[in-house]
From TrEMBL:
<protein>
    <submittedName>
        <fullName>GMC oxidoreductase-domain-containing protein</fullName>
    </submittedName>
</protein>
<keyword id="KW-0285">Flavoprotein</keyword>
<feature type="domain" description="Glucose-methanol-choline oxidoreductase N-terminal">
    <location>
        <begin position="49"/>
        <end position="174"/>
    </location>
</feature>
<keyword id="KW-0274">FAD</keyword>
<dbReference type="GO" id="GO:0016614">
    <property type="term" value="F:oxidoreductase activity, acting on CH-OH group of donors"/>
</dbReference>
<dbReference type="InterPro" id="IPR012132">
    <property type="entry name" value="GMC_OxRdtase"/>
</dbReference>
<dbReference type="InterPro" id="IPR000172">
    <property type="entry name" value="GMC_OxRdtase_N"/>
</dbReference>
<dbReference type="InterPro" id="IPR036188">
    <property type="entry name" value="FAD/NAD-bd_sf"/>
</dbReference>
<dbReference type="Pfam" id="PF00732">
    <property type="entry name" value="GMC_oxred_N"/>
</dbReference>
<dbReference type="GO" id="GO:0050660">
    <property type="term" value="F:flavin adenine dinucleotide binding"/>
</dbReference>
<feature type="signal peptide">
    <location>
        <begin position="1"/>
        <end position="17"/>
    </location>
</feature>
<keyword id="KW-0732">Signal</keyword>
<comment type="similarity">
    <text>Belongs to the GMC oxidoreductase family.</text>
</comment>
Length: 260
């Protein structure tokens, strides 16, 4: 990476433009830092990137694993709750709708009556959620499960289980507009690379597979610059991002097939 003249020049330009290097982006002191940086990645001795996803797929594929099952393209529509003997609402399962998706998802098929199934548990339900529609669905299902502002839930015929008026409130989005730049020259780091998933069609991928993962495809890193453009704020509001990947922009449902 360091030998790539254009990438080095790119980073040097950031520094010359008054953006100091951010040494560790994950350090709390870097939270609002203005500067240029490269995020850290986890790679193994074979220069292969590793991730939590890889671990989950490995466990799923392991013969000795009867426990972990993935339900892809499945919507959690409700947490099934009952009263424990102490009167505390207790989750005993999840109602799911296989094949269904949120309106923001690429596989959303339009409004439909969902066919649901119940999965019950012996021990506990652990919920991970995102931002959009999570309070409605299960912060995935909190509100549909009866957790939220009681009067609001009753307007939709949902029996309140726990009156928590804060659920679903105070969402603060950050407006984001992305501008993608086409560079005048190719980065020499990617000479001959076409960023395709088939090694027969991509000499760089073929080289990567045959030569101990030693080229830009192992890099996986990005160069990022955080700057502030607003006179009234010292927080960064502009992020410039460079990575050796084929990224045609944000295209609904099409990102994965082009990502490396
Ligand atoms: C998990 O394993 C099952 C059974 O082998 C398979 O059908 C499914 O596609 C796997 N899921 C993932 C996400 O790898
Ligand atoms: C749980 O118990 C409370 C108090 O007894 C009651 O008001 C509520 O309806 C019960 N909820 C469910 C889901 O049974
Ligand atoms: C799932 O459980 C809920 C709550 O007991 C029930 O209302 C619903 O009918 C169940 N759904 C199915 C498909 O069994
Ligand atoms: C709860 O919902 C009701 C009915 O939608 C609304 O009038 C009220 O302001 C809400 N309360 C809070 C604290 O958001
Ligand atoms: C950049 O690389 C692509 C793919 O290898 C090639 O088709 C294109 O001609 C190159 N452009 C320049 C300006 O070298």
């Amino acid at each position: 990476f360091c030998a790539d003249a254009q990438t080095v020049a790119f980073f040097a330009t950031l520094v010359a433009a008054g953006l100091p290097p951010i040494v560790d982006l994950n350090d709390l002191v870097s939270d609002r830092a203005i500067g240029g940086t490269m995020p850290s990645f986890t790679t193994d001795a074979d220069h292969t990137r590793s991730s939590v996803r890889d671990r989950l797929v490995n466990v799923n594929q392991s013969e000795s694993n009867p426990y972990l099952q993935f339900a892809l393209d499945t919507l959690a529509t409700r947490i099934l709750l009952c009263n424990s003997s102490s009167g505390t609402p207790t989750a005993y399962g999840v109602e799911i709708a296989p094949g269904a998706a949120l309106p923001v998802a690429s596989n959303f098929q339009g409004k439909a009556i969902l066919r649901t199934e119940n999965i019950t548990v012996r021990r506990e339900v652990i919920i991970f959620a995102g931002v959009f529609q999570s309070p409605q669905l299960a912060t995935n299902g909190l509100m549909l499960s009866g957790i939220g502002n009681s009067s609001h839930l009753q307007e939709f015929g949902i029996t309140p289980i726990l009156d928590l008026p804060g659920v679903g409130n105070n969402l603060q989005d950050h407006d984001e507009i992305s501008i993608i730049w086409r560079m005048k020259q190719n980065f020499s780091l990617l000479n001959g690379c076409v960023l395709q998933p088939d090694p027969a069609q991509d000499p760089c991928l073929e080289f990567w597979e045959d030569n101990g993962h030693l080229n830009a495809y192992s890099f996986g890193g990005t160069v990022e610059a955080f700057t502030s453009q607003s006179a009234d704020s010292s927080e960064h509001d502009l992020m410039t991002h460079w990575e050796p990947a084929y990224f045609p922009g944000f295209i609904r449902g099409d990102l994965v097939s082009h990502d490396i």
